[in-house]
Design goal:
Elements: E1 13-16, E2 19-22, H1 23-27, E3 31-36, H2 43-54, H3 56-60, E4 64-70, H4 74-88, E5 96-98, H5 103-107, H6 123-126, E6 132-137, E7 143-149, H7 157-172, E8 175-176, E9 187-189, H8 195-198, E10 204-205, E11 212-214
Parallel strand pairs: 3-4, 4-5
Antiparallel strand pairs: 1-2, 3-6, 6-7, 8-9, 9-11, 10-11
Helix pairs in contact: 2-4
Length: about 230
């Protein structure tokens, strides 16, 4: 069964390139980007882990930990990390989970349908392939967002950062983010939020009475601080 948004992320213990972890203990009070990839030493996955390694400072600035998963053992992960760093010099300093028995993959519904027909994938591999899943998990250990990519499609981690930004600002304030929004752009004030109750002029009206736009509160606008938090 697929995991639903705002349900608790299943806890587990597993071996990683940083040692054995209890997932909830490892999360602590941080946000988490938890992603899976089909197999070590594969071309699309190599470009993904390299790209993500180069973006780690952006995740750290958002109090977000990064952790990956594959069915291969820790020894393979460690050797593969050397190859990844050789591409553009980005070291893989985030942990990679070893899931040879597919326990975590099953727990997070990361396996494709056994009857699927992925191009370029042999029948002997199809039943054990882990799809490119992405989970954004909050400090409350609940799933805030999830994405699934097919076997042959690499992920856009800039879009994942954009999604993370939206999850973080909407978790703190009574706002939503419009289509194609990026951090720092105007947000939507949720319907039912009273300007009078805040004693400030919250948001500007558009041509539609139910769409009010306001500055991104995460940019530290003092007058916006009285907008109700979640």
């Amino acid at each position: 069964m697929s995991l639903r948004l705002n349900t608790e992320a299943p806890n587990f213990e597993a071996d990683t390139t940083h040692g054995r972890i209890n997932f909830h203990d490892w999360i602590g009070d941080a946000w988490v980007l938890f992603f899976s990839h089909p197999k070590d030493f594969t071309p699309v996955c190599t470009t993904e882990l390299d790209s993500l390694a180069g973006l780690l400072p952006q995740f750290a600035a958002r109090n977000t930990k990064v952790i990956g998963l594959s069915a291969d053992p820790v020894s393979c992960h460690s050797e593969w990390a050397k190859d990844i760093e050789s591409v553009r010099g980005n070291p893989v300093t985030y942990p990679l989970i070893a899931d040879p028995d597919l326990v975590v993959a099953e727990l997070y519904d990361m396996l494709p349908d056994a009857t699927s027909n992925e191009p370029g994938v042999g029948s002997e591999e199809r039943e054990i392939l882990i799809i490119r899943s992405v989970f954004i998990i909050g400090p409350d250990k609940r799933i805030k967002a999830s994405l699934s990519y097919p076997f042959n499609t690499g992920r856009n981690f800039h879009e994942i950062i954009r999604l993370l930004d939206s999850c973080q600002v909407t978790a703190k304030y009574r706002v939503a983010t419009p289509a194609n929004w990026h951090h720092g752009e105007e947000v939507i004030v949720l319907p039912g939020t009273s300007s009078d109750a805040q004693n400030v002029s919250v948001g500007r009206n558009t041509s539609l009475p139910y769409v009010r736009l306001a500055p991104d509160p995460s940019f530290g606008k003092e007058w916006f601080e009285s907008l109700p938090r979640r």
